[in-house]
């Protein structure tokens, strides 16, 4: 059950983040607020179902950071440093793309300046990020089966001759 929800939450993260990276109309402060609220509801649901150890919440980290990026101030060099230290699960390319797509929804907000984006790129130039922008929707986590040791010892097992396993030798 834990592995299924980890995979499901990864898919939620990948689809939502990819949509954010491809659609200018959703890159705004209000979308960041809405995303953060919805993510907190998912995290609360995980806690309520006692699934917080499944790793499902961790798969949402890039989306959480993208939501926070949309909500942060984007003007000064200190803001750029804060963004760079906060957005560790996002690649440089993803951060820059979100900043380029950022669209103010009211007169109190301003567009992100080109100088600010260059400042971000300068701060992040030493990162060795993968070149891909979008998350892989086909990524699957390996299925892990717990090991439950048997009380039956190997020397007490009788192998029927009908199985044609004569090449097996008891040691």
TrEMBL record:
<protein>
    <submittedName>
        <fullName>MYO5B protein</fullName>
    </submittedName>
</protein>
<feature type="domain" description="Dilute">
    <location>
        <begin position="1"/>
        <end position="126"/>
    </location>
</feature>
<dbReference type="InterPro" id="IPR002710">
    <property type="entry name" value="Dilute_dom"/>
</dbReference>
<dbReference type="Pfam" id="PF01843">
    <property type="entry name" value="DIL"/>
</dbReference>
<dbReference type="GO" id="GO:0051020">
    <property type="term" value="F:GTPase binding"/>
</dbReference>
<dbReference type="InterPro" id="IPR052072">
    <property type="entry name" value="Vascular_dev_regulator"/>
</dbReference>
């Amino acid at each position: 059950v834990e592995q299924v929800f980890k995979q499901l939450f990864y898919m939620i993260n990948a689809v939502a983040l990819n949509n954010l990276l491809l659609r200018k109309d959703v890159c705004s402060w209000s979308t960041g607020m809405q995303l953060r609220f919805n993510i907190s509801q998912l995290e609360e649901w995980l806690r309520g179902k006692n699934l917080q150890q499944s790793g499902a919440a961790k798969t949402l980290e890039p989306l959480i950071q993208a939501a926070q990026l949309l909500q942060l101030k984007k003007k000064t060099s200190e803001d750029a440093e804060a963004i760079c230290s906060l957005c560790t699960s996002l690649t440089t390319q993803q951060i820059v793309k979100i900043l380029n797509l950022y669209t103010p929804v009211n007169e109190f907000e301003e567009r992100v300046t080109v100088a600010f984006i260059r400042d971000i790129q300068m701060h992040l130039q030493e990162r060795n990020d993968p070149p891909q922008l979008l998350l892989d929707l086909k990524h699957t986590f390996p299925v892990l089966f717990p090991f439950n040791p048997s009380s039956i010892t190997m020397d007490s097992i009788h192998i029927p001759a009908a199985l044609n396993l004569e090449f097996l030798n008891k040691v």
